[in-house]
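Meet today's protein:

…
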Amino acid sequence: MDHLWTPWRMAYIRGEKKPVEGCLFCNKHLGDDDAEQIVARSQHVYVTLNRYPYNNGHLMVVPYEHVQTQEALETEALTDLMLTINRALAALRKLYSPQAFNIGANIGAAAGAGIAEHYHFHLVPRWPGDANFMTVVGDTRVIPDTLDNTYEELKGIWQELYGD
């Protein structure tokens, strides 16, 4: 029998967390940065941790504007998106020293977008051998640090690098 420890899910089991009404990403940027784990903000986008990460440091860069695809964004927002992605890559390199990254967007449900109605970009740090025993044999990904700790460390590095 496989067991996976997921204490953050208890709030859902007890009914303490209600399903999100409206768009998750639109609601998220209106909340408190610490509670929502928003690492940084720029004029057109914000950087947040993925609550269900593939690896430690899995970030998302999300436009404030509610659009389904990047071609709906204005040039200024696209430029801000890419510059913010570069900043996020630098912060992740400083914190984790990954040897590689997966970056990209799933546009539409058929492409694997979990939240297809609001375009967002993923940044996933990668290391040789990060598909370890648990991933290969147990079909389970192991994330060795808490989201809260990852958030605090990344936010501190972001402030150190960019002062915002």
